[in-house]
Specification:
38% helix; 13 strands
């Protein structure tokens, strides 16, 4: 029996890479694009421009295309999601059932809605190849003992913040937390935290213990490294095996160019 997959594409290059992997695994891929997802058309049999505020059209297309699975990929802006007004009756019903745009209840409602249609929402990790960050240091520079102590502080705080569903990234300098990520995202949190900390800040990104990888794989990439470099950060550390290292070669290159220690912990 043919395996048919609806790829829900947020912004960025990740949807194209995940579409290619899905095709390699034998899936027929139909892409629903909610943001600028360059290259996804090379791997999908059909691309359907979509809006998060108008899910009725997406749900109808899932049925029409005979899709049995859904895979989310790319960046969906939390700020846009909060500000958006429901554009159709289906969106209004999802809002009413969830009661929130950001918490686990919304995820449960989306999963329930798709399951009722016979569509399984898949874990993203089997479609990521080797891009989940492993343990160790990838940059030329390694952290000092003082920086490692800040990494330990940052990792403990980032896990607490992630478990509380607030954010996943913190910035630390000499044991003091200078920024905690909220809806602004990783890059903006880095900009704010390094500005407050001054040169030598440590950036740490972690994931909630019960994180649902069907809807999001936390990641860090060149844009975040550029922000860390501009803020003269000393270290960028991510939770090993749980955070995606986007565009690994370019991300490491930017870390090396700025003298930043980039590592998985």
């Amino acid at each position: 029996m043919e395996r048919a997959l609806g790829l829900m594409c947020g912004a960025g290059t990740l949807p194209a890479r995940m579409a290619a992997e899905a095709r390699r695994q034998g899936w027929r891929v139909v892409a629903f694009t909610f943001g600028d997802a360059p290259g996804v058309d090379r791997h999908a049999l059909r691309v359907i421009p979509s809006r998060v505020t108008e899910p009725a059209a997406v749900l109808a297309a899932l049925g029409q295309e005979g899709l049995t699975a859904a895979l989310f990929s790319g960046k969906f802006s939390a700020q846009d999601l909060i500000a958006a007004q429901p554009g159709d009756d289906a969106a209004a019903r999802l809002d009413e059932r969830a009661g929130s745009r950001l918490d686990m209840r919304l995820i449960e409602v989306v999963v329930t809605t798709l399951t009722e249609m016979g569509v399984t929402v898949l874990d993203q990790r089997p479609f990521l190849g080797d891009e989940l960050a492993g343990s160790g240091c990838w940059s030329r520079r390694t952290p000092t003992e003082d920086e490692r102590r800040d990494v330990a502080v940052g990792l403990a705080v980032a896990r607490l913040v992630a478990d509380a569903r607030v954010g996943q990234t913190v910035v630390v300098r000499r044991g003091a937390v200078t920024a905690v990520e909220a809806v602004e995202g990783t890059t903006e949190a880095i900009r704010r935290g390094t500005r407050l900390a001054g040169p030598g800040a440590v950036v740490v990104k972690a994931v909630a213990r019960d994180h649902d990888y069907r809807f999001d794989t936390p990641g860090i990439g060149p844009e975040s490294l550029e922000a860390a470099a501009a803020g003269r950060a000393a270290v960028v550390a991510v939770e090993a095996g749980r955070v995606l290292l986007l565009d690994r070669e370019e991300t490491v290159r930017r870390a090396d160019a700025a003298g930043i220690a980039l590592l998985g912990v």
